[in-house]
Amino acid sequence: TLVDMRFVKPLDEALILEMAASHEALVTVEENAIMGGAGSGVNEVLMAHRKPVPVLNIGLPDFFIPQGTQEEMRAELGLDAAGMEAKIKAWLA
Q: Hey, what domains does the chain have and what are their CATH numbers?
């Protein structure tokens, strides 16, 4: 299931809880810092409701990002399709 989380706030808590109830794990993807981003918000909602669902947060790491084109940086940081697929497969293994 793909859900568009266009905005971090307000989070659609009902939808997050619905996804948690109907899926064994969740993956969040954002072109933003993981810490304090949408994925962190999903984690907070799940913990506030005591829903122990595994969550993989994919996004920008917490270090200075070198410069390059968007395509180059997405590939380098694993935020392109191949990188996201590899991260998800490794996490699920």
A: 13-92 (3.40.50.920)
